[in-house]
Structures are given as structure tokens and as C-alpha cells.
From TrEMBL, chain A:
Listed name of the protein: Heme ABC transporter permease
Localization per Swiss-Prot or TrEMBL: Cell membrane
One BP annotation, GO: siderophore-iron import into cell
Lineage top rank: taxon: Bacteria
InterPro entries recorded: ABC_BtuC-like, ABC_transptr_permease_BtuC
Family: Belongs to the binding-protein-dependent transport system permease family. FecCD subfamily.
Annotated source species: Halochromatium salexigens (Chromatium salexigens)
Residues annotated as transmembrane: 37-59, 96-116, 128-151, 157-177, 189-211, 231-253, 279-307, 350-369
SUPFAM superfamilies linked to this entry: ABC transporter involved in vitamin B12 uptake, BtuC
A GO term for molecular function: transmembrane transporter activity
A Pfam family matched in the record: FecCD
GO cellular component: plasma membrane
Automatic annotation (TrEMBL), chain B:
Name of the featured protein: Fe/B12 periplasmic-binding domain-containing protein
Organism: Halochromatium salexigens
UniProt keyword Signal, yes or no: yes
Superkingdom of origin: Bacteria
Key words of the record: Signal
Domain named Fe/B12 periplasmic-binding: residues: 38-297
UniProt lineage: Bacteria, Pseudomonadati, Pseudomonadota, Gammaproteobacteria, Chromatiales
Entry-linked Pfam families: Peripla_BP_2
Length: 374, 308
């Protein structure tokens, strides 16, 4: 069944191990884990190559490989300068940004689902997306008037910086509301998140109402997400910010595994629960805040990718977190490839495609869960 | 002998003629890059001006706000002007991108510029003076400044005739222009909008000219207080709503003087809002619909003929 869901050859040994109880299950499991991650890495690399090779400008594969070869310092033949420019200044930064954003969102989603022990949790739950959206819409609508000092000081960076700051501030607020005397209740965190999301949503709604026609179009496109703003500076800043949670969250895999048993149980296992919870929340907020800042709101990746992997590989966060990073990047790149090529020379907002790919999957998941519990 | 000689002269003459034509053609193609550059226009008014100046053969892509003339349907569409795609535009292999201030996103424009495409800003203030600037800027890009000056002069001429015609009338109807009504957020036009200028040129008065700038959501009470005598909507909006009664049901429009008299005017949206070379035509059409100018007596001026 798992092989069917993920379609990975690496999962075949799993069914073998299950059907031959006489073999070494521990050894098999290790091997399986390594194979799964290798397969996911191979998937990510091939999707990345596709993303660099395919686009509205027709570039022969040989030229693509030659450009990449020249980048790696290999002595290769000349490439047409315009093709080289398309690959180096458009497709390559866009591919890297897609990998970073997809990986960041998926890892943050997996960590949130682990922390809240709730399969419906996504990074939006702690207010990151709603806060970032409120800040971004404020800049779009009030940038010419009330917030003119901000847009003048920061220029074209005011939108991403405001979105990032808005996401972090909202998360901090949610966290503060849920903490009392140095103790944080995960349930209150969840409920405070819902309340703050509603408030931020109201603010966004009010600004949307005040927006003029052009601003309305801008914020509609922003809220559907796009990797179209992928320039090297954007990739650089996103990489700096997303790399931290991307490397740190997998290190907290044991903590997340222990938290799956319950907060008290994790405490008995020697986990400093009260110190780890804010750390996980902060790392997830950092990843999502940076992702939203550079690409707008991209839904479903953070929710769907961890589920896909949990179905295929089980709930162990040591496997789940790196796997989510690889699969999240691959899925977002695939969606972006479709967004770029389906309606050329125009472009679809990527949020439409992630929701289109993610929606039916999520429904199927719900129906399966219903059947199983009935 | 005689017929053969005549044949010889004809053939020689034709050959010389052909050679001359070919050399002229060759000289022309090699000469000016402005007249062969591949252009993309991401603004409806710029596209209209390009057509009016005869530069349409150079047009390889337009945005989704370029709706007139109908021939734009056959040109590749590069999407909405504020959500352009860098590689999509580069795939059309353009030399120059003609755009207004609001084109974007800025990162995409930067990438296009870095790939060697000239991203050329064109001014677009919604006033008559602004339109002259737009025409002059597009004409310069095409290296057809004479045609541009002619188009500007023609526009001035049409506007002067229209002004003379509207001054003969004592009517100054008070109009309220509503954009997208019926979608829960009825947007009304204030000053500094294309609709405001067209209404003024047509000899009417925009009831919200002093109230605000740009488009703003209109409340029922504000509509009542503005007391418009005529409500102006776009043809498509009226069709979507399903007729005059549906328009008047919105807010307090029924209670306004316009609602009492059931005066709702629908105009072709792209014509009314494009703010291109058809500005005088749009204003004249509105003026005649309002009864400010008489279609019969002003026919000879060619104002209401509705030509592009």
C-alpha cells in the first residue's frame, strides 16, 4: 500500500521485510530508511534538473548541461548568451528558491504536526501566514500613504521585510498568550493561534476593503503565491533564513518523537519540554516567515507533504523531517514547473497548483481515515 | 521586329523596376532598428496607440488589458500587466517592452532588463495632456514622430469640435460612474480617473469629483447624498447584472434622482476606460447618449460616427 501511495521503488523491501519475519527487521529498517532518503534525493535532483531544463524559452538539453557544466568549472563549448542568461538569471535562482521554500514549508509543517500531535496542524496555525499576510497587505494598501516612511526607507524590499517581521511578531504574540509562569500549554497555543488568525484576517479584510482596484489585483496575486520574484539576492536572503530551521529541526527529531507520546511522557524521557517547545515554534516561524516573504502565500505544501511521508515511511521524525525537506522541495518545483509552462507566455499563480495537487490528496486522506475509524 | 523590341523594353523596364524595389526594401530593412524592433506592450492604451500609428506589425506580445482593436486577440498574451513572467516574455524574443508605471512585479522587470530587453516606461496620466505625452512617447519608440504629431493633432481637433458642441448645450448632467457593481463592493469613480475625464469632456459632471481621488467603495448614503442624475455603468456589468432594475436595486440608487427617472447608461467598458486615441470618440458617444450633443446636427463633424 505504501508503495502505491508514494510510487517509490525503495519501499519494496518494506513489504518484503513484513512478509519474511525471519530476516533481521532492524537491519532491514535501517536499509529501508537510507534507501527512501536516497530515492527522495534522486527525485529532488531530477525535478530540479527538469525545472532548469524546461521553460517557455526553448533551450536544447545539451545547452542546459553545458551551462551547468561551465558553472561547475568544466571546460565546455560556448553557449548562446541569451540562453545562458535565461538559465543563470531566471531558472537557476527560481529552482533554488523553489527548493528552499518547499523544503522550509514542509519541514515546518512536519514539526508543527508533531508538536501539536494534530494531523491538521500546519504552520499557519501559529499565526505566521496570517501575520505575514496582514503586514504585506498593509504595505500594498498603505504603502503610498500611512506607511510611506517605511516604503521609502526600504524601497522594493519593504514588502518581504514587512511580511517576514509580521509573521514573527504574530507568532511571538500567540506564544506569549499561551504561556503563563514560564509554562506553555499546547492546547492554549492552538486556540490562541485560531483567535489571532481571525483577528489578523479581520485586519487583512479591512485593508482589502480599503484597497483600490490596482492594489486589489496586487494583493490577490500575492496571496496566491509565486516564485516569479526569484532573483539571486532573494535566493541569498531566503537561504540564510531558511537554512537555520532546515538544519536545526531535523536535529530535534528525537524531541519531536518523544513529544508524540505526550508532554509529560516526554518530560519523563528527559526532554526539556518547556525549553524545546518555544524553540520548535520559533524555528518553524522562521522558515515559514522567510518563505512567505519571498514567495507570497503558498498553501498545502506544509500540510500535505508530511502526511504523504507519514503514510509511506511511518511517524519517526528522524526520517520524516529530512524526507519532508526533500519531498517538499520536489513538490513545489513540480507545481512551479506547471505554473510556468501551462499558459505561456503568461504564468499561473503557484498557489492554485499546489492546492489543485494537494486538495484531492487531502480529501482522499480524510476519506481513508473515516473508513478506518468507522 | 517591332513587337519583339517592345517586349524587350518592357522586360528591361520591369527588371529595373524590380531591382529598384528590392534595393529600396533592402535599404529600409537595414536602415532603422526602431521600425523593425520586436515590441511587447503591457498596457491597453499603449497598444491602441501602436495600432493607430501603424506599428502593429512590430507587436509580438500584449497584456490582458490590451483589448482593442480586435486584432490583438491573435497576438500572444503575456498575462496581467502586474503579474508578468520573465521567461514567458523572453520566449517571445522582444527587443523592447513598453510599459506604464504600474507594470510589474519589479523583480521580473529587472530580470527582463538584464536579459538585454529595453524596458521602456511610457507616461500615462489620465488627462488630455497626459494622453498627448503617451502618444508622443510611443511615436518616438516607433520612430514615427510625424504620425504621432498627426494623431495628437487629430485628437485635439476632435476634442475642440466636441467642446464647441457641448458648449452649445445648456445641459450639465450630474453623473455617477460605478465600476464592478453587484459584486458586493461597488466601486465609484472620483477624480484622477479615466471615467472622470471622459465625463467632463462629454460636458457632464462627475458627482464625486470633489469627494475623493481614484476608485473607492461607495456606500448607499453617499450615493444618495451625491444625488446623481444619471448612473453610468459598463455594458458588460449591466449584462452580468441582468438589466437596469438590477442596477437600481443596489444600495440606495433607487432613491437618487437617476433612480427615480430610471436613467442608467451603459457604455463599452474598454472604450470608456482605455484612455487611448479613442478618447474623443468615447466622450462624444457619451455626450450624445446624454443628449448634450445632437447626433443629427453633429454628424457632419464626424464625432459620433464611432470610427476607431
Amino acid at each position: 500500500m505504501n508503495t502505491r501511495v508514494l510510487g517509490l521503488r525503495a519501499n519494496r523491501p518494506a513489504s518484503h521485510a513484513a512478509s519474511h519475519p525471519g530476516t533481521h527487521p532492524v537491519l532491514q529498517r535501517r536499509q529501508l530508511e537510507r534507501l527512501s532518503l536516497a530515492a527522495l534525493l534522486a527525485l529532488m535532483l531530477s525535478v530540479a534538473l527538469l525545472s532548469i531544463a524546461i521553460g517557455p524559452v526553448a533551450i536544447p538539453l545539451a545547452e542546459v548541461l553545458r551551462t551547468l557544466g561551465a558553472l561547475a568549472g568544466l571546460p565546455v563549448a560556448e553557449v548562446a548568451p541569451q540562453h545562458e542568461a535565461v538559465i543563470l538569471s531566471i531558472r537557476l535562482p527560481r529552482t533554488l528558491l523553489g527548493l528552499l521554500v518547499g523544503a522550509g514549508l514542509a519541514v515546518a509543517g512536519a514539526a508543527m504536526q508533531g508538536l501539536f500531535r494534530n494531523p491538521l496542524a500546519d504552520p499557519g496555525l501559529i499565526g505566521v501566514s496570517a501575520g505575514a499576510a496582514l503586514a504585506a497587505v498593509s504595505v500594498i494598501v498603505l504603502g503610498g500613504q500611512g506607511l510611506a516612511f517605511l516604503t521609502q526607507a526600504l524601497g522594493p524590499f519593504s514588502l518581504p521585510i514587512a511580511a517576514f517581521a509580521g509573521g514573527l511578531v504574530t507568532t511571538l504574540l500567540v506564544y506569549r498568550l499561551a504561556s503563563r509562569d514560564g509554562r506553555t500549554s499546547v492546547t492554549t497555543l492552538l486556540l490562541a493561534g485560531i483567535a489571532i488568525n481571525a483577528l489578523a484576517g479581520a485586519g487583512t479584510g479591512l485593508l482589502t476593503y480599503l484597497a483600490d482596484d490596482q492594489q486589489l489585483r496586487t494583493l490577490t496575486f500575492w496571496s496566491m503565491g509565486s516564485l516569479g520574484g526569484a532573483t539571486w539576492p532573494a535566493v541569498g536572503s531566503a537561504a540564510l533564513l531558511i537554512a537555520v530551521p532546515l538544519l536545526a529541526l531535523p536535529l530535534l527529531a528525537r524531541t519531536l518523537n518523544a513529544l508524540l507520546l505526550g508532554e509529560a511522557e516526554a518530560g519523563h524521557l528527559g526532554i526539556a519540554v518547556q525549553r524545546m517547545q518555544p524553540l520548535i515554534v520559533a524555528l518553524a516561524a522562521l522558515a515559514v516567515g522567510a518563505a512567505v516573504a519571498v514567495s507570497g502565500i503558498i498553501g498545502f505544501v506544509g500540510l500535505v507533504v508530511p502526511h504523504l511521508l507519514r503514510l509511506a515511511l511511518g511517524p519517526d521524525h528522524r526520517l520524516l523531517l529530512p524526507g519532508a525537506a526533500l519531498l517538499g522541495g520536489s513538490l513545489l518545483l513540480l507545481a512551479d514547473l506547471l505554473a510556468r509552462t501551462l499558459v505561456t507566455p503568461a504564468e499561473l499563480p503557484i498557489g492554485i497548483l499546489t492546492a489543485l495537487l494537494g486538495g484531492p490528496f487531502f480529501l482522499a486522506l480524510l476519506l481513508r481515515w473515516q473508513r478506518r475509524t468507522a | 521586329m517591332q513587337p519583339r523590341k517592345r517586349l524587350l523594353t518592357t522586360v528591361t523596364g520591369a527588371a529595373i523596376g524590380l531591382l529598384w524595389c528590392a534595393s529600396a526594401l533592402l535599404a529600409e530593412t537595414g536602415e532603422t532598428s526602431a521600425q523593425t524592433a520586436r515590441l511587447i506592450s503591457v498596457d491597453g492604451a499603449i497598444t491602441e496607440i501602436l495600432y493607430a500609428l501603424g506599428g502593429e506589425a512590430q507587436l509580438v506580445g500584449v497584456d490582458t488589458t490590451s483589448l482593442y482593436p480586435d486584432a490583438t486577440e491573435d497576438i500572444a498574451k503575456v498575462g496581467y500587466k502586474r503579474a508578468l513572467s520573465a521567461e514567458g516574455i523572453l520566449s517571445l524574443n522582444p527587443d523592447r517592452l513598453l510599459m506604464t508605471d504600474d507594470a510589474g512585479p519589479p523583480e521580473v522587470l529587472e530580470q527582463i532588463a538584464r536579459a538585454g530587453v529595453d524596458t521602456h516606461p511610457i507616461p500615462d496620466t489620465p488627462s488630455v495632456a497626459g494622453l498627448h505625452e503617451t502618444i508622443a512617447a510611443v511615436a518616438e519608440v516607433l520612430d514615427r514622430t510625424e504620425a504621432g504629431a498627426a494623431l495628437s493633432a487629430q485628437l485635439d481637433d476632435e476634442l475642440a469640435q466636441l467642446e464647441a458642441a457641448t458648449e452649445r448645450s445648456s445641459k450639465r448632467p450630474r453623473l455617477l460612474f460605478l465600476l464592478h457593481i453587484g459584486s458586493g463592493n461597488d466601486m465609484a469613480a472620483g477624480r484622477d480617473t479615466a471615467a472622470d475625464t471622459v465625463i467632463r469632456l462629454a460636458g457632464g459632471e462627475n458627482v464625486l469629483h470633489d469627494a475623493f481621488s481614484g476608485y473607492k467603495p461607495l456606500s448607499a448614503e453617499a450615493a444618495l447624498a451625491a444625488a446623481p442624475e444619471v448612473i453610468l455603468v459598463t455594458q458588460r456589468n449591466l449584462e452580468q447584472l441582468g438589466g437596469l432594475d438590477a442596477v437600481l436595486e443596489r444600495g440606495a440608487l433607487q432613491a437618487t434622482p437617476a433612480g427615480q427617472a430610471r436613467r442608467v447608461l451603459a457604455m463599452d467598458g474598454p472604450l470608456l476606460l482605455a484612455f487611448g486615441p479613442r478618447l474623443a470618440v468615447a466622450a462624444a458617444q457619451l455626450a450624445s447618449e446624454l443628449g448634450i450633443i445632437d447626433e443629427e446636427t453633429d454628424e457632419r463633424s464626424g464625432l459620433t460616427a464611432g470610427q476607431p
